[in-house]
Design goal:
It contains 20 helices and six strands. The two termini are 20 Å apart. The strands form two sheets. A four-stranded mixed sheet has the order 4-3-5-6. Strands 1-2 form a two-stranded antiparallel sheet. The chain has 492 residues and is α+β, with helices and mostly antiparallel strands. The radius of gyration is 23 Å and the shape is globular. This is Cis-aconitate decarboxylase.
């Protein structure tokens, strides 16, 4: 039985398909040769056969990891608050699945929102370069809209992967319009900017919108984008991902109904800010449309970064460096060593320089906290951010010993930075650890075994073992599925 939302959606979609040629002639003249039109053409014309084996494999790893961090994220306080808000404040249609909730469904936009919040609630989701969290903004929207489609029009697993990759590709291409985007952000949180655009693009692809509608979807999404970095390290940061997913989906749905927006939203137009409003420097480039020779996705040439523990990406460098020192400290034997001073050398980035974090969200964005946790325990884990772990007297004592320096040769750039920790012991001995590329970085990606281990640990907090293993199998064969409901049914 179709819901009111599905009934309202189906005729508009079906009508567009039945009368597509007439609509194009009467309502959608050929767009100008602009940056924006090149993006609309790409989204509309890209086909599944353009996905190489490398892109398929890497994107399936992203899907698996994103589902896992979304499932464990569904246990957090911020997810519970977002879900309660949606259930109490909106009249919701029970259509789309919610991570980790067997009997809970929401409207597609609200499901995309809460699942996006879950994905980023522990800062455990994937990261790319230039810096953003690409999967969390796209996958919840793609899953929600797949739930929304009528039973006889469900996308295949390959359709879903194509839409997902379109959303990732658009984010990567847009970030290359600006040198500013290559560095650790200071003004806008990147997923709230390019993530919303990626979500809109992915949903537009899944809805089979035409070139003009895809352009309008991007332009509508641009009006719904942007969140300030001041809310990093707070409970509001996960809302950025949730909103990117939800608002991108809404932009695509509005475009599918005929809502129009700027046809030059991505172009550099003198005297008028479009998407350029988000960047201090902005030089847009055309996006080549796929041809008989295919299309080289950015994911083909640059892998994704996957986190081993739930914290800001910058923390992984200092944690690895401190873990190396922990191994040296073990050689002294228990009770035989006393630390006098801890020096951390990191890039200069104010919002992740937090000497005494007061909440788990601040701790996830603290060079000092993650360094001291690794020195104390030899690792940083999910449990490191619990109230008990954060208030340990020995951890607080170490935090009081920390100094931070910002060497000129250590840029605030995830592709070039390093982390260095120097521990001076009572007696004068000095121990040093340095990390240039942590395990999980796109230059040193997690093995499939490590990625599955992370997924089992995360998903197993919410799902029984048989469902966890079932999800691994389904995602591994996703491009072979004729109907994505096989995947959707495993998420609750």
């Amino acid at each position: 039985m179709m819901s009111k939302l599905q009934k309202a959606f189906k005729p508009a979609w079906a009508s567009r398909r039945l009368h597509k040629s007439a609509v194009e002639v009467l309502q959608h003249p050929e767009p100008e040769d602009t940056i924006t039109s090149s993006y609309g053409k790409f989204i509309s014309n890209i086909k599944a056969e353009h996905l190489s084996p490398v892109v398929l494999q890497r994107s399936k790893r992203m899907v698996l990891d994103s589902i896992g961090v979304g499932l464990i994220g569904s246990t957090t306080d911020v997810f519970a608050l977002a879900l309660q808000h949606c259930q109490h404040m909106y009249a919701h249609d029970e259509i789309s699945s919610v991570y980790g909730r067997r009997d809970t469904k929401l409207s597609p936009t609200l499901a995309a929102f809460v699942n996006g919040v879950a994905t980023h609630s522990m800062d455990f989701d994937d990261t790319w370069h230039p810096a953003t969290h690409p999967s969390g903004a796209v996958l919840p929207a793609v899953l929600a809209i797949s739930d929304m489609m009528p039973a006889n029009c469900k996308p295949s697993g390959l359709d879903l992967l194509l839409a997902f990759n379109v959303g990732i590709e658009i984010q990567g291409r847009l970030m290359r319009f600006s040198n500013e985007a290559h560095n650790i952000p200071k003004r806008f949180h990147p997923p709230s900017v390019v993530g919303t655009m990626g979500s809109a693009a992915a949903c537009a692809r899944l809805l089979s919108l035409d070139q003009s509608q895809c352009c309008h979807a991007l332009a509508i999404a641009a009006s719904l984008s942007g969140a300030p970095m001041a809310n990093a390290a707070t409970q509001s940061k996960p809302l950025h991902i949730g909103n990117a997913s939800r608002l991108g989906l809404e932009a695509a749905l509005l475009a599918s109904r005929g809502l129009e927006a700027s046809t030059q939203i991505l172009d550099a137009v003198d005297g008028v800010s479009g998407f350029s409003a988000f960047y201090e420097d902005y030089k847009p480039c055309m996006l080549e449309s796929p041809n008989d020779y295919g299309h080289t996705f950015l994911l083909e040439t640059q892998d994704m970064g996957f986190k081993r523990f739930p914290a800001h990406l910058g923390m992984h460098w200092v944690a690895d460096a401190a873990t190396n020192i922990y191994k040296l400290l073990l050689e002294y034997g228990p009770g035989e060593v006393q630390i006098q001073d801890i020096l951390i050398r990191t890039p200069k980035s104010k919002y992740i320089n937090r000497p005494f974090p007061k909440s788990e969200h601040e701790a996830r964005h603290s060079f000092q906290f993650n360094t001291c946790s690794a020195l104390l325990d030899g690792e940083v884990t999910v449990q490191s951010f619990t109230p008990t772990a954060m208030t340990r007297p020995d951890l607080l004592a170490l935090l009081n010993l920390v100094r931070v320096e910002h060497p000129h040769d250590n840029p605030a750039n995830f592709n070039q930075m390093y982390g260095e920790v120097q521990v001076t012991l009572v007696g004068g001995n000095v121990l040093r650890g340095r990390c240039d590329t942590f395990y999980g970085h796109w230059r040193n990606p997690l093995t499939n075994e490590s990625l599955r281990k992370k997924f089992r640990s995360n998903a197993g907090v919410v799902l029984p073992r048989e469902k966890v293993e079932g999800l691994i199998d389904v995602v591994e064969e996703l491009e072979q599925l004729e109907d994505c409901r096989v995947l959707l049914s495993q998420l609750q």
